[in-house]
Amino acid sequence: MELTCLHNKFKFPSLPHLSRPFFKNPNPRIFPRKINILFLASASDTVVASSIKELGSKKDDEFGDLKSWMHRNGLPRCKVVLNESTSHDEKHMPVHYVAASEDLRAGDVAFSVPNSLVVTLERVLGNETVAELLTTNKLSELACLALYLMYEKKQGKKSFWYPYIRELDRQRGRGQLAVESPLLWSEEELAYLTGSPTKAEVLERAEGIKREYNELDTVWFMAGSLFQQYPYDIPTEAFPFEIFKQAFVAVQSCVVHLQKVPLAQRFALVPLGPPLLAYRSNCKAMLSAVNGAVELVVDRACKAGEPIVVWCGPQPNSKLLINYGFVDDDNSYDRLVVEAALNTEDPQYQDKRLVVQRNGKLSVQVFHVYAGKEKEAVSDMLPYLRLGYVSDPSEMQSVLSSQGPVCPVSPCMERAVLDQLADYFNRRLAGYLTTLNEDESLLSDPNLNPRRRVATELVRLEKKILHACLQATTELIDELPDHTVSPCPAPYALLLK
């Protein structure tokens, strides 16, 4: 199974602030208008303070902690405890994490959460057919789950899920470095990612969340079970976009993608699961659906008190940051993308398109450059790029009649292709605000802002891949037999971005 952190922790900073008016409102029909007024009057710092105040009353809370609540509701004896780590921000409560309660060996079951304590679309919508309809045509699973928990949060202690939602509030969408997803960063903080394709991914994802928000009302009237539970609370009136976005990002970081289950059970929110678990790209432990429960079997020995580690799927660091708020320095799945495209103005565009299709490529081809495999990636790009330097019609006919991705390689063509690649990697490196050395210097500062730290770690790892690509390209240039040859002209060279 893949942990699909639908991507960052439950951060409903405004909802705790609004909870008392919600619960005391005698007329649910006028609730939407009151919410909007309260939200607009609430500054973010006030919201944070009220969240802490509410969470700080834990001693007087009859529910106890999350694990105690789960045991009272069917969680069997397990081998984990909830420990606490200090938050980087004094305004935030410390982050909880799941740790081993005793020494564990590889293959031990750390915990097994019964399905009665797991939130899925089947539970939310009460009908697998409705779940399929909604997620196929209108909303993502994340949006449906986020909306459900937002309404449940409104019920306060009346909600069965109150202890779980309270724990997610406490986590506030923070990843392993106590950092929220960049989907919740300010414009100034997003500037830390300048030069990285991740910045564009964040903006694109944010637009997608907005589109889903705009569909909420339509879907609400399709989802009969939810409409019956909350008949007067129209989503876009009950929750401003920023609240929905925070909820969506929170759910994103918590959702588990289960395998070998019906569609309506595929995405699950599992108490004791993410975001309370630590992620490692080199780990293979996964949450799995087994006999009416979701269980975790550890893949390595673990001492009592150590965090429980799970796999978060084959995701590059850009996805880890967007989904979970962290990056992994030892991530074998980390990669950058190089997009190459045939020049549509080339008179021989159609012939070249036939050649690349015959060799399993596209007219706009994406090459994945994995960390540690940069030389292989550069070598894979060369046959494709050489096509851009074939201009003579007779040479093109020779390429068309040949077998395999073979172009007649001349010294001037090879120099031109390698120069184009080197220039491309240099331009990408120049697009960042800092150099690799400056990144290292920033990261050596123990007082560096956590969001700046995680952004710097991401761009540093990207630059290392680009530098390795540039080095591989330079080495190929150095291996050319004649360095006096000028690069071939190419009015229709392939486009790289």
UniProtKB/TrEMBL annotation:
Q: Where is it found, in Gene Ontology cellular component terms?
A: chloroplast stroma
Q: Which domain of life is it from?
A: Eukaryota
Q: Which SUPFAM superfamilies is this protein grouped with?
A: RuBisCo LSMT C-terminal, substrate-binding domain, SET domain
Q: Does the keyword Lipid metabolism apply?
A: no
Record's protein name: Rubisco LSMT substrate-binding domain-containing protein
- Asked whether the UniProt record includes S-adenosyl-L-methionine among its keywords, one would answer yes
Q: PANTHER family of this UniProt entry?
A: RUBISCO METHYLTRANSFERASE FAMILY PROTEIN (PTHR13271:SF9), UNCHARACTERIZED PUTATIVE METHYLTRANSFERASE (PTHR13271)
GO BP field: methylation
Q: Name one GO molecular function term.
A: protein-lysine N-methyltransferase activity
The Rubisco LSMT substrate-binding domain, residue ranges: 344-466
Keywords assigned by UniProt, alphabetized: Methyltransferase, S-adenosyl-L-methionine, Transferase
